[in-house]
Amino acid sequence: MDAFRQWAFDRRDPTHSQRVYDWWSRHDRVYAAFVTAFLLGRTGELRDRTIAALSLAPGDTVLDVGCGPGSNFERLADAVGPTGTVVGVDASPGMVERARARGEQFDCNIDVVRADTERLPVANERVDGVCATLSLSAMGDTETVVAGLSDVSRPGGRIAVLDVRSFQTAPLRWLNPLIEGVSAAVTNWYPDAPIMQTVDETFAAVSSETFHGGTVYVVTGSKLD
């Protein structure tokens, strides 16, 4: 199974991520089922926990990194209210199109931009909160991305990341090569991305919660004043 995992990773090319996520954007129900499977049936609860951890207030500006089809928009719009702003960023044209359509449903300023998250289209110290759900582990250079998220955060601004990693303990971890191989073919998931470590090194007052034996986690932190 290790050979299969490596074969799947080796098949990636620079356009793999965009092709894959554009396909997902055209298959809403399949995408929702896939996310539910990744979060082991606790999608709503875990998104609620992630966004609540940002401690957003009416009028705040929040950045949704790798926003996908806008699955967080309703919760974020409720948190920042009609006077607040939600900025969604995604590299997939298909996901951006879906997110823009969804954003029109809410009484809030929602701006969706197609961009590379290593070059965020947001001014430094502009946002009060950064939300990332199942997105950082799909980006190759975690350190660069998280450093950029710190740059655009205001002093005291918060980050909240919901993501998944491979099984941490036996016997389930024996399935990791198969799961990682399949995921490499149908997503851009990097299971070894050092997300928790990088957030801890970049932000202050970092805390984390883990679920399902450490496979699913929420990590939060604040930018120093």
TrEMBL record:
<dbReference type="GO" id="GO:0032259">
    <property type="term" value="P:methylation"/>
</dbReference>
<dbReference type="Pfam" id="PF13649">
    <property type="entry name" value="Methyltransf_25"/>
</dbReference>
<dbReference type="InterPro" id="IPR041698">
    <property type="entry name" value="Methyltransf_25"/>
</dbReference>
<dbReference type="InterPro" id="IPR029063">
    <property type="entry name" value="SAM-dependent_MTases_sf"/>
</dbReference>
<protein>
    <submittedName>
        <fullName>Methyltransferase domain-containing protein</fullName>
    </submittedName>
</protein>
<dbReference type="GO" id="GO:0008168">
    <property type="term" value="F:methyltransferase activity"/>
</dbReference>
<keyword id="KW-0489">Methyltransferase</keyword>
<keyword id="KW-0808">Transferase</keyword>
<feature type="domain" description="Methyltransferase">
    <location>
        <begin position="62"/>
        <end position="157"/>
    </location>
</feature>
